[in-house]
Amino acid sequence: MSKGIKNANREALVKTLINEYAPQNVMELQDILKEIFAPLMEEMLQAELESELGYSKHDQTPKATRNRRNGSYPKTVRSKLGEVYPQTKTFAKTFPK
Length: 97
Fold this sequence. Notes:
- By secondary structure, the protein is α+β, with helices and mostly antiparallel strands.
- It has helices at 10-21, 26-53, and strands spanning 69-72, 77-79, 82-84, 90-92.
- Helices cover 41% and strands 13% of the residues.
- A two-stranded antiparallel ribbon has the order 1-4.
């Protein structure tokens, strides 16, 4: 999302996060953002993998490619929020590690 784009739900989302987590200082706020960032990153990685392979995770139809979801490895994502560890670890045979 660009800095100039306004999201009508942003205020409601911020209020919900503050009410739900009740951060007391900036460090707690950063921890909340880091906690939320990991699942978002997981979803993005899964979408990227599905796009790269051309089929969804449990698709049973014949594939047009020999590339498969055939293994896993630990994933660390370094960001401005620090290191996060998405739970998604599946990778395709030719997908970059």
